[in-house]
Amino acid sequence: MTAKQTTAPERTRRSARQLVAASVGNAVEWYDWYAYTFLATYIAAAVFPKGTGNSLVPLLSTFAVFAVGFFMRPVGGLLMGAVADRRGRRAALTVTILLMGGSSLLVGLTPTYASAGVAAPVVLVVARLLQGLSVGGEFAASTTFLVESAGPGRRGLFSSFQYVSTTAGQLVASGIATLLVNTLAEPSMDGWGWRVPFWLGGAFSLVGFWIRRGAAETRSAAQRAAPRPGLFEALRRHPRQSLLIAGITAGGTIAYYTWTSYLPTYAELNAGVAKSDALLASTISLAFFALLQPLGGLLSDRVGRRPPLLGFGVGFAVLCVPLLHALRDSFAVLLVVQCAGMVLLTGFTSISAAVNAEVFPPRVRAAGIGFPYSLTVALFGGTAPYVGTLFKDLGHSGLFPWYVAVLCLLSSLVYLRLPETAHRELER
């Protein structure tokens, strides 16, 4: 047996271990993050005071806290990205998952407004700030880790597992939320049922931590021997790349959070869809979305990164408004609208990790990706539920689809000018 024959299976096993380490931990991270979104109406009723004459006030408060958590993500991307660039990708990944587990437990233990008054929303805000710090660092470290673990011509495929695992976390969160809503009586769901997913999230994080401890470090020996980069070195030395990542991300993040997180609530508020139907449609469409990701990644390894990105951006700019306006009180219509958006969205999600990693040199890759990406997500993705609910509250719900379409169109202009990087060797 030749050396080549003996090393090929070893490379395959190593690649599988790397994918599992990144994916399992990432799924746990995003399970915790999205459980909050799916259970927003229950959290609103328990943690915030009732609005005087306006039933949307508690829900607006809940989504405002959701947005606040997003604004810690750039800090997490910068700090945990720096840890990944200085101490290694694996070290950053183990820290982020422990942070997420602790913050998930804190959400589950948040007191009600009736029992603790203003302390209840304060505890919730602290928990979301910790979650934001963790998720921002998670994307920076896991994106770099996944793409650096890929073999030649497979960066798009490996990149797709960023959103396979993210969607798996969402799917589990949505599935558990749907199960609880459909099996528990309303008083039980309002009282303690909404807390169960967050208690489970704390336990899941320990499993992810154990798996990640066995992953192989992807930072090269040359990078380990080089002087440590400064905290703001990526921004200072690579401002063009930072702006490029912001432009790439803006349309993708608003479309992603609208379709995968906010759409059930949007359908409830604007089309009268039942809460249980909205959650079930979301669960089915998320499973479909996860299956699409590797196909999108493989396609980009063949045809390049720019065609799928343009397919997403132009497709959403043209179809977002008619799709959201087509919603009505129908489970089938909601499911079709969600799945149609998921097909278009795959052009962005399946390859965003590869595109981001190919923009920055390895010395500052994690921090370079983490800060501009997370800041853009905070500005546009994290505020999507709040903006959509606010438009409804102001009596202009029809403007929200146009807001999403315009951002996707602007990102499409960036995609047109984007250098093709799919077939270049990744700098180590």
Automatic annotation (TrEMBL):
SUPFAM superfamilies: MFS general substrate transporter. Keywords: Cell membrane, Membrane, Symport, Transmembrane, Transmembrane helix, Transport. Residues 18-422 form the Major facilitator superfamily (MFS) profile domain. It is found in: Cell membrane. Its main location: membrane. It comes from the Bacteria. It is a multi-pass membrane protein. InterPro entries: H+-coupled_symporters, MFS_dom, MFS_sugar_transport-like, MFS_trans_sf, Sugar_transporter_CS. Pfam families: Sugar_tr. CDD domains: MFS_KgtP (cd17367). The chain crosses the membrane at residues 56-79, 91-107, 161-180, 192-211, 242-259, 279-297, 309-327, 333-355, 367-388, 400-418. This is MFS transporter. It comes from Streptomyces rubradiris. The lineage of its organism: Bacteria, Bacillati, Actinomycetota, Actinomycetes, Kitasatosporales.
